[in-house]
Write a sequence for this structure.
């Protein structure tokens, strides 16, 4: 069988990622995955500063590329196609990656594929658990997204069934983390704290699950009401001069997010007759979500595919995986005047 080496470049946020994937007719194999992060440079600002991220990508791009090639034991001349994140993400950071990818595609005279970052968070699982069956449901949860996707084809068959109407799941965790005085980004800290608390201690609201919301927004999510409910609960305690049981607050909050995400996603699987669920994005590292998804998918007879945590965060592998799918399908390459799109639709 013919094999093609696909280089994947990711730079939509604060991770510079370059990876090499070997694409054959029946598999996508990860040969290397190099990542450089500027997250520490943003920590003191409590959020990502696009200008700083862009400069960090500019400095890290070539060293990260070198590392990816070395780790894979290949040279640039071996590369058959270049895939790059075209959006969504921060314009400056995206432009650094797209410029590098275009320069490589021109110099090597190889096809360029502009890739949607959100789809990358789903298709990366093909590197771990094998190529997808014909139809899968995908839940993409990160600091910027909470979307439910029906995936018939990784390249041109992705339908967005729903998304968050306000905060993303990771964003809600980060905000609750700040509220509880935890370091940035708060998500992993809230997760850890939640494991020490009682998830049934406080009954926080379940966003968009009431029958009237379910009728209009069956596949959409909302987490800002939950976040506000947590803030009010904590304030009330403080105003009363009582100690805040932070572990119970974290656990009860995390339970609401995991409950809503899994209940709605499994209902969508049933409605569409889909028996495979892929969960991707940085928030799929969340242990409350992983646990409840495993339990409920087993009960519902749904095969659950969640890649290991290191594949869930931003990296070049997810972009190379989509590039590999494009090469396998023989889809036309992107034009070399490809633009980046900060709010790229699916
Ligand atoms: O996909 P990602 O690395 O970057 C974006 O594209 O947003 O996602 C990072 C998000 C952050 O909000 C982070 O706090 C959250 O995912 N996160 C977690 C956990 N690990 C990362 N939230 C809760 N529990 C975790 N274990
Ligand atoms: Zn991401």
């Amino acid at each position: 069988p013919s094999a093609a080496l696909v280089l994947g470049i990711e730079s939509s946020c604060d991770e510079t990622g370059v990876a090499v994937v070997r694409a054959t007719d029946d598999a996508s194999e990860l040969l290397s995955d190099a990542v450089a992060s500027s997250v520490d440079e943003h920590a003191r600002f409590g959020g990502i500063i696009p200008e700083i991220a862009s400069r960090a990508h500019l400095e890290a791009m070539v060293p990260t590329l070198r590392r990816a090639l070395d780790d894979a034991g290949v040279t640039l001349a071996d590369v058959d196609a270049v895939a790059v994140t075209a959006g969504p993400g921060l314009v400056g950071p995206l432009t650094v990656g797209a410029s590098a990818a275009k320069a490589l595609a021109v110099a090597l005279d190889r096809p360029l594929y502009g890739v949607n970052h959100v789809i990358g968070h789903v298709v990366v699982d093909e590197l771990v658990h094998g190529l997808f069956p014909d139809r899968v449901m995908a839940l993409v949860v990160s600091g910027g997204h909470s979307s439910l996707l029906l995936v018939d084809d990784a390249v041109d068959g992705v339908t967005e069934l729903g998304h968050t109407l306000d905060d993303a799941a990771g964003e809600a965790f980060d905000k609750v983390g700040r509220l509880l005085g935890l370091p940035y980004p708060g998500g992993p800290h809230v997760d850890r704290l939640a494991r020490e608390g009682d998830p049934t201690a406080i009954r926080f609201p379940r966003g968009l699950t009431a029958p009237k919301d379910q009728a209009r927004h069956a596949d959409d999510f909302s987490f800002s009401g939950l976040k506000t409910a947590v803030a009010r609960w904590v304030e009330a305690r403080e105003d009363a001069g009582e100690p805040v049981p932070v572990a119970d607050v974290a656990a009860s909050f995390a339970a609401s997010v995991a409950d809503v995400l899994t209940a709605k996603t499994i209902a969508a699987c049933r409605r569409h007759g889909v028996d495979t669920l892929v969960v991707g994005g940085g928030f799929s590292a969340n242990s409350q979500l992983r646990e409840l998804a495993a339990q409920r998918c087993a009960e519902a007879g749904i095969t659950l595919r969640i890649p290991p945590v290191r594949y869930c965060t931003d990296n070049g592998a997810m972009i190379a995986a989509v590039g590999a799918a494009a090469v396998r399908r023989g889809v036309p390459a992107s034009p070399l005047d490809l633009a980046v799109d900060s709010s790229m639709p699916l």
The pocket of KG4 (ligand 1) is lined by residues 13, 142-144, 170-171, 173-174, 185, 187-188, 191, 281-283, 285-286, 313-314 (CB under 6 Å). Residues 4-124+315-329 form a domain with the Nucleotidyltransferase; domain 5 fold (CATH 3.30.420.40). Strands lie at 4-10, 15-24, 27-37, 81-87, 112-116, 136-141, 146-153, 157-163, 276-280, 303-305. The chain has two domains: 4-124+315-329, 136-310.
